[in-house]
Write a structure and sequence with these properties.
The protein has a seven-stranded mixed sheet with strand order 6-5-4-7-8-16-15, with helices on both faces. A three-stranded antiparallel sheet has the order 1-2-3. A two-stranded antiparallel ribbon has the order 9-14. By secondary structure, it is of the alpha/beta class. Helix 4 packs across helix 5. The radius of gyration is 25 Å and the shape is globular. The mean pLDDT is 95. The structure holds zinc ion (ZN). Zinc ion (ZN) binds next to loops.
């Protein structure tokens, strides 16, 4: 019997922004977000979207100090391999916050980080911000640890699109979790039970983050078949730390005074009548 191994629902040759070489992207399942992989580095579309934005905005990323919270993708491995200033952290309450696990990660609570202010050029989070209980604290802490001009580059599924963001679960003072909507879990390399989704985000995520953190967030939506960037929910968010541009200097001319306008109108009327 013929093997069915090559029954791809999509297979495209192109250039992979993660492993930075010509490659083939292929999926055996129509849910491209999880299944449309680079056959060279195993990256998913959202990782290729993230790297596409990263290399566009910070082509010198290899020279920068980078904090990635909760890594675990091909893009994480690429950052670690290529950037000497890369530091990975995991939410790991089994060791003291700020200490380093023998397997390499530093234990950090994204909502209460032990890093000094203005330490990083880049903070990367990939599908993390839909799992934090206090996203206002997390994005504010990310902003605190960024240098001026630094960027938080992240992927987060904006499942509610133009609808408002909605909380799915919250912590309670007694340490339990209250589910406001049916519990939903995503895969988590640190936890076989997966990660609980705490917020279903809409595009108002940018306005919300900016209001609570003072950062300036732009949402990039990319559809680029030649780079294997095709799937649902693969927006890349870039939050910049820094002030607004200086666009002063314009001086509006003094408006025509009412009396002069009436005189002008009379003169035109006179000319028309004679
Ligand atoms: Zn690749």
């Amino acid at each position: 019997m013929a093997a069915v191994q090559d029954e791809y629902v999509l297979k495209v040759d192109g250039f992979c922004p993660v492993c930075e070489q010509d490659s083939t992207f292929a999926a055996r399942d129509p849910w491209l977000r999880d299944h449309y992989l680079c056959l060279s580095c195993n990256s998913q579309p959202r990782e290729r979207a993230l790297f596409s934005v990263l290399t566009q905005l910070r082509p010198n990323w290899r020279e920068l100090s980078i904090h990635e919270s909760s890594p675990g993708t091909a893009a994480s491995r690429r950052l670690q391999d290529q950037a000497p200033g890369y530091l990975a952290s995991q939410y790991d309450p089994s060791i003291p916050w700020g200490s380093v696990h023998p397997r390499g990660w530093r234990s950090e609570d994204l909502e209460r980080q032990t890093f000094a202010d203005a330490k990083f050029d880049l903070v990367i989070t990939q599908d993390v911000m839909e799992h934090v209980f206090a996203p206002d604290l997390a994005i504010t802490e990310i902003g605190r640890t960024l240098k001026p001009g630094g960027l938080h580059i992240c992927t987060v599924p904006i499942v509610n699109k133009e609808g408002p963001s909605v909380r799915r679960a919250r912590r309670k003072a007694d340490g339990t979790v209250e589910h406001l909507l049916e519990p939903s879990f995503h895969g988590n390399p640190m936890d076989p039970n997966g990660s609980l989704v705490t917020v279903d985000w809409g595009y108002d995520i940018a306005a919300y983050w900016d209001a609570v953190s003072g950062l300036s967030t732009t949402i990039f939506t990319i559809d680029d078949p030649g780079r294997g960037i095709q799937a649902e929910y693969i927006e890349v968010l870039v939050s910049r730390k820094g002030g607004l541009p200086d666009l002063t200097g314009d001086v509006a001319p003094t408006p025509v005074r009412e009396s002069e306008f009436r005189k002008l109108a009379r003169r035109i009327k006179h000319r028309l009548m004679h």
